[in-house]
Amino acid sequence: MNKKNEKRPRESERHVEAVAKTLSILECFTDSEPELSLKQLTEKTGLNKSRILRLCGTLASQGFLIRMPWSNYQLGPKLMMLGKIYERTNTLVSVARPILRELASLTGESASLFVTEATKRVCLARAEGTSLIRYAIREGDLLELYVGAGGKALLAYASEEFRRQVLNSSVLERFTPSTIVERDRLEEEFEVIRRQGYAVSKGERTSEAAAMAAPVFDDEGKVCAVLTVTGPVQRFSTERCLEMLKSLKASARKLSLLLGNGEGVCTVEKGD
C-alpha cells in the first residue's frame, strides 16, 4: 500500500498508552475514596502491581500524587495548582460561580453549570442549595445528554447531526420508568424545549430527583452551556417550578450577557 494514501488517524484518536494509563490512575480518586492502596488501584485500573508502582512513583515525584507513610496514595498539590489555573482562565466557570451561588440562594435548590463533553455532559461548576435534603452532583461528573433537564436542553439546541450521533451511538439506557428512550419522543421533547426556552425533568435519571434547565448563549448566539436547578421531586410542583423558572431564566440571561451575548438570547436559528 502506498503510504501517501494511508489515512492518518484523527487527532482525537492519537494517544500514548503510557500517558493514558497514568491518567487512569488519577481518575480512580473520588470524594468518597480520596485515599487508595496499591491493591485498590490495581483492581480499579486492571494494571499489574509493578506497573502501578512505576506510574505512581512517577506521579509522586512530580507532585501529582502523595505517598502516605502507610503506603497508600492521595492526590497531590500539583493537581490543585493546575485546577486553579484552569478555573482562573476558564471565563465560563469564573463568571458563572457567583451567578450559581445567587441562583441557589434564590431557589433554595442546588444550581449547576453543564457543558457538552464528547457525547455526554459534564458539570463544570456547582453551588449547593440551602435545603437540608439535596440531590448530589459533583463538579466533574459526566452524565448522559438524553436524560434529565440539563442534558436535554443541551441536546435540544445542538445540531441535528450531533443529536443523531448521540441518540444512535448506543442503546439508550432506561434509568427509571420515567426515562424516555424512544428517539421520536425525544425529538418531540427537544422541539418543545426550543419553543419554550427551558427544560423540565422529573424522576428521569433518579426517581427521587427533578430538575429544570435553561440555555446559556455565547457571543455568537449559540448555546455554550446550561444552568440547572436540581432537588427532590416533591419540591418541584407546577407552582414552584413556575416560581423557580423566573430566577433560572434571569440567571441564564445574566450569564449570557456576561459572555458577550448582547441580548442574552439566541441569535441564530435554534437547532442549527
Overview of this protein structure:
With about 270 residues, this protein is α+β, with helices and mostly antiparallel strands. The protein is about 40% helix and about 20% strand. It contains nine helices and nine strands. The strands form two sheets. A six-stranded antiparallel β-sheet has the order 6-5-4-9-8-7, sandwiched between helices. Strands 1-3-2 form a three-stranded antiparallel β-sheet. α5 packs antiparallel against α9 and α6 packs across α8.
List keywords for this structure.
disordered C terminus; three-stranded antiparallel beta sheet; Arc Repressor Mutant, subunit A; six-stranded antiparallel beta sheet; 272 residues; single chain; Beta-Lactamase
Overview in brief:
Residues 1-6 and 266-272 have low confidence and may be disordered. This protein has nine helices and nine strands. The chain is 42% helix and 18% strand.
Low-confidence stretches: 1-6, 266-272
- Can you tell me the CATH superfamily of the largest domain? GAF domain
**Overall pLDDT level:** 88
Radius of gyration: 21 Å
* N/C terminus separation: 40 Å
- Corresponding CATH architecture of the largest domain: 2-Layer Sandwich
CATH topology of the largest domain, by name, is Beta-Lactamase
**How many H/I helical runs?**
9
Q: What kind of sheet is the major sheet?
A: 6 strands, antiparallel
N-to-C series of helices and strands? HEHHEEHHEEEHHHEEEH
